[in-house]
Amino acid sequence: MTISDRALAIAAKVETFVRETVVPYEKDPRRDHHGAPTDELVMEMREHARAAGVLTPHILGDGDHLNQRETAVVLIKSGLSPLGPLACNTMAPDEGNMYLLGKEGSPELKERFLKPMVEGHVRSAFFMTEPAEEGGAGSDPSMMKTTCHLDGNHWVVNGRKTFITGALGARVGIVMAKSEQGACMFLVDLPDPAIRIDDVPNTIDSSMPGGHATLTIDNLRIPADQMLGEAGEGFRYAQVRLSPARLSHCMRWLGACIRAHEIATDYANRREAFGKALIDHEGVGFMLAENMIDLKQAELMIDWCASVLDTGSLGTVESSMAKVAVSEALMRIADRCVQVMGGTGVTDKTIVEQVFREVRAFRIYDGPTEVHKWSLAKKIKRDWKAGRA
């Protein structure tokens, strides 16, 4: 499946918007307690994106999505600034939540919950992960302890969730809980008095409004018609969401690392030491050359995985491979950019130090590298056994 001229044109518009309109906002002081942009700042940038025709650019006017390869070229460009995905409404968790609702939501749920998200008026949150110290679901969703049961025409949900990105300030929630039939998903309006935010810790990353909250769900009553799909199908829906969402993270942070590499390259060509430009010192020049290699390999891995998803496959194996390969490559790139820039690289004078922090967190979010490797190793063993049968 080829990348259309339409998608390339959208990507070009997004790049121009991010470089010319969004980048100047990187020094805007409107930030929350852990350094993330406030909703006021986000909505102001989105008004600019709406005017420029680049708001939610991967979802077309008729509600259809660009295919995954086309989405990649657009989301990479939106990631050229840490603020770009927020401004263009391509950020996590909203982008993944919109994808899931577009695939599995009823017409009524799409009108009520998806439409305001696509229009960029509200943020959303995905309530799946649970506190590890309480034995809840993390990388292993089968450990889920949050429960739900039917009471008349309502489902009643109780449990605890943690690392719920964007929960503080979100207006739409997708809540995952376990019933007698199996895992279920529900759409809820936020805030709700039955969902109490207990803590929003400071974290190494600071690009996502609302932080990563820990919260308690206490007898949350949800109308039965707000269940997403069918009872017991929640884990399947989670895979519909998570495989493309892992890849979308790769797309956005590749864009950020492209920009960090540009900044480090500019610094290495302008800064002189020991009688010549830094780039002419082999140790520095080789780091930038290695960046170039890793950037291209990350781009190719994203394109390959996107091609698999475009065939209609869930692509869980491929997205795990991409998540590992791309996140590790981007970590190397971000680290080299800091190293090339020396003292300046660890200051907030450029976005390089933020990109380093964000990519470090990305190696954990949506499944740590080790969990994906373990999953791949299990597949290798299964395939080996099948080959011997």
Automatic annotation (TrEMBL):
UniProt domain Acyl-CoA dehydrogenase/oxidase C-terminal: residue ranges: 232-379
GO molecular function: acyl-CoA dehydrogenase activity; flavin adenine dinucleotide binding
Keywords of the record: FAD, Flavoprotein, Oxidoreductase
Flavoprotein found in the keyword field: yes
Residue ranges annotated for the Acyl-CoA oxidase/dehydrogenase middle domain, each copy included: 126-202
Cited Gene3D superfamilies: Acyl-CoA dehydrogenase/oxidase, N-terminal domain, Butyryl-CoA Dehydrogenase, subunit A, domain 2, Butyryl-CoA Dehydrogenase, subunit A, domain 3
Keyword Flavoprotein assigned: yes
InterPro entries: Acyl-CoA_dehydrogenase, Acyl-CoA_Oxase/DH_mid-dom, Acyl-CoA_Oxase/DH_mid-dom_sf, AcylCo_DH-like_C, AcylCo_DH/oxidase_C, AcylCoA_DH/ox_N, AcylCoA_DH/ox_N_sf, AcylCoA_DH/oxidase_NM_dom_sf
Signal peptide: none
Cofactor: FAD
GO biological process, one term: fatty acid beta-oxidation using acyl-CoA dehydrogenase
Chain ranges of the Acyl-CoA dehydrogenase/oxidase N-terminal domain: 7-120
GO cellular component, one term: cytoplasm
Record text on subunit structure and interactions: Homodimer.
Family: Belongs to the acyl-CoA dehydrogenase family.
Family matches, as PANTHER family: ACYL-COA DEHYDROGENASE FAMILY MEMBER 11, MEDIUM-CHAIN SPECIFIC ACYL-COA DEHYDROGENASE, MITOCHONDRIAL-RELATED
Protein name in UniProt: Acyl-CoA dehydrogenase
